[in-house]
Design a protein that fits this description.
Layout lengths: L1 H16 L4 H19 L11 H33 L3 H21 L4
Length: 112
């Protein structure tokens, strides 16, 4: 009976960890759009207008919010992997970031 209870608890924990957090996902998506807007300045609010202060605040908070939410999801997955004794996900992300970093360094080196 104890073994069956343990299996049920593991199954419930696995289902809970796979449940999407739609509010966080939506906020992360919105912040990603704001970050893109920061770079291409599709929407530019002039200083002195009524919307300047709120828009400036959203722009200032976009990158930290996106970073924190992305870190939350990454470390949530890593904690699940850690229970299995595996750091494969961390190594995968590090390799991916290193490849992206090297690519952009090489791609932008003629510009710099």
């Amino acid at each position: 009976m104890s073994n069956q209870t343990s299996d049920n608890n593991k199954r419930i924990a696995k289902n809970m960890s796979q449940t999407p957090i739609t509010g966080f996902d939506l906020l992360k998506f919105i912040m990603a759009l704001v970050i893109v807007n920061i770079h291409i300045q599709l929407v530019d609010i002039s200083e002195g207008t009524l919307m300047y202060a709120p828009w400036s605040f959203v722009n200032d908070m976009a990158v930290p919010t996106f970073f924190i939410l992305s870190s939350f999801f990454l470390f949530k997955k890593m904690r699940e992997d850690d229970e299995k004794g595996s750091f494969k996900r961390l190594i995968h992300y590090e390799k991916r970031l290193l490849k992206l970093y090297l690519f952009w360094i090489l791609a932008l080196s003629p510009v710099i």
